[in-house]
């Protein structure tokens, strides 16, 4: 916790999740072209990873039913990643057909949330992932894993750190390059983050763990600070603080990318991201949301 931080000596990867985690929760119907422009503007701002959309069931998440068109239309910058959510083999088929090169598998730390989100037990999600991960590896896709509700679950309450870590461990065992521990409902405190990350680092690689905060409790930046102290190098955020999860009652916005970037830069930590560029992307999207509402 008291590790000395040397200004300018570190670089952090910010994973932009606004086009997916943000837009999946917007009631306004955002035109496909506006989604594509949003992703491109975020990449132009220097965000190295932009989670672009989700190949889930369109009945479950109608907001992202145009994932195929979005991924075909995005002008991809070399060296950047545009992961997409994939829940099952059908999702992977669609993603591969659209030329996707990075995917994210998602499960949960609790049985209750897994059932609410993907209508499966945790074990069933891994049964679905096994062929997906094998195919993804043979296609040389980059693979991220998510552990939803790693801290608190809206249905079953507090989550034991060892339960979340066990699920993260299984995602690494499947071949995930990176695993993100998510505070899906934004209730984690800095003490909770310290407790979970300390347990995680006993068995998981610090440089391949990400933290994903929502800002319900207004503690997201404090939580990032704890993650930094523990040597975590990847943090998720959503431009404009958009989003939440439609299957997690009480989950409002993600930690805003602009706030995260400003927080890191103030500490002399490099991100490679141009804050003004992110702000422009947000302003344009807000215009679209206002006219679509
Ligand atoms: N893409 C498109 N359609 C899909 C699909 C996919 N990846 N997976 C399933 N479907 C379709 C099936 O074809 C079927 O369609 P039909 O009713 O017209 O025959 C329908 O969805 C149901 O399929 P089934 O396999 O029975 O899935 P399910 O109803 O048990 O739902 C999930 C499981 C995972 C597909 C669904 O719950 C889901 O997509 N959840 C996403 C949740 C999410 O994105 N949460 C936000 C992230 S935190
Ligand atoms: Zn989220």
Descriptive report:
There is one protein chain. The protein has 293 residues and is an alpha/beta fold. It is built from eleven helices and eleven strands. A nine-stranded parallel β-sheet has the order 2-1-11-10-9-6-5-4-3. It has a two-stranded antiparallel sheet with strand order 7-8. Strand 3, helix 3 and strand 4 form a beta-alpha-beta unit. Helix 2 runs antiparallel to helix 11, helix 6 runs parallel beside helix 7 and helix 7 crosses helix 8. The protein is globular and about 45 Å long. The structure holds coenzyme A (COA) and zinc ion. Coenzyme A binds next to helix 4 and helix 5.
SSE order and pairing:
Layout: E1 13-16, H1 18-22, H2 32-44, E2 49-50, E3 53-54, H3 67-73, E4 84-85, H4 89-97, E5 102-108, H5 111-118, H6 122-138, E6 142-148, E7 152-153, E8 157-158, H7 161-174, E9 178-183, H8 190-203, E10 209-213, H9 220-229, E11 234-237, H10 257-266, H11 275-292
Parallel strand pairs: 1-2, 1-11, 3-4, 4-5, 5-6, 6-9, 9-10, 10-11
Antiparallel strand pairs: 7-8
Bound molecules: coenzyme A and zinc ion (ZN).
Mean pLDDT: 94
* Range of strand content: 5-15%
Largest sheet: 9 strands, parallel
Major sheet strand order? 2-1-11-10-9-6-5-4-3
Number of helices in the DSSP assignment? 11
Distance between the termini: 44 Å
Number of DSSP E strands: 11
The best one-word shape is: globular
Estimated helix fraction: 40-55%
Helix-strand makeup class: alpha/beta
Helix-strand sequence: EHHEEHEHEHHEEEHEHEHEHH
Q: Uncertain runs with pLDDT below 50, 5 residues or more?
A: 1-8
Q: What is the radius of gyration?
A: 17 Å
Q: What are the distinct ligands in this entry?
A: coenzyme A, zinc ion
């Amino acid at each position: 916790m008291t590790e000395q931080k040397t200004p300018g000596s570190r670089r952090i990867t910010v994973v932009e999740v606004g086009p997916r985690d943000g837009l999946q929760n917007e009631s306004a119907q955002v035109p496909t072209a506006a989604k594509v422009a949003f992703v491109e503007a975020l990449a132009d701002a220097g965000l190295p990873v932009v989670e672009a959309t989700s190949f889930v069931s369109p009945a479950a998440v109608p907001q992202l039913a145009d994932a195929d068109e979005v991924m075909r239309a995005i002008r991809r910058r070399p060296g950047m990643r545009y992961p997409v959510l994939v829940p099952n083999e059908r999702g992977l088929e669609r993603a591969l057909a659209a030329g996707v090169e990075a995917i994210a598998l998602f499960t949960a730390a609790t049985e209750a949330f897994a059932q609410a989100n993907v209508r499966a037990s945790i074990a069933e999600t891994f049964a679905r992932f096994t062929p997906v991960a094998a195919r993804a590896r043979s296609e040389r896709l980059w693979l991220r894993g998510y552990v939803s509700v790693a801290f608190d679950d809206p249905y079953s309450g507090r989550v034991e750190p060892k339960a979340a870590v066990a699920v993260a461990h299984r995602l690494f065992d499947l071949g995930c390059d990176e695993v993100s521990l998510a505070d899906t409902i934004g209730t984690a405190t800095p003490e909770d983050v310290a407790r979970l990350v300390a347990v995680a680092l006993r068995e998981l690689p610090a440089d391949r763990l990400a933290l994903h905060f929502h800002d319900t409790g207004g503690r997201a930046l404090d939580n990032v600070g704890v993650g930094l102290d523990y040597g975590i190098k990847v943090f998720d955020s959503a431009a404009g603080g958009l989003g939440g999860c439609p299957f997690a009652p009480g989950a409002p916005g993600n930690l805003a990318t602009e706030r995260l970037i400003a927080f890191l830069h103030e500490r002399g930590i490099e991100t490679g991201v141009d804050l003004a560029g992110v702000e422009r992307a947000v302003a344009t999207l807000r215009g679209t949301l206002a006219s679509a509402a």
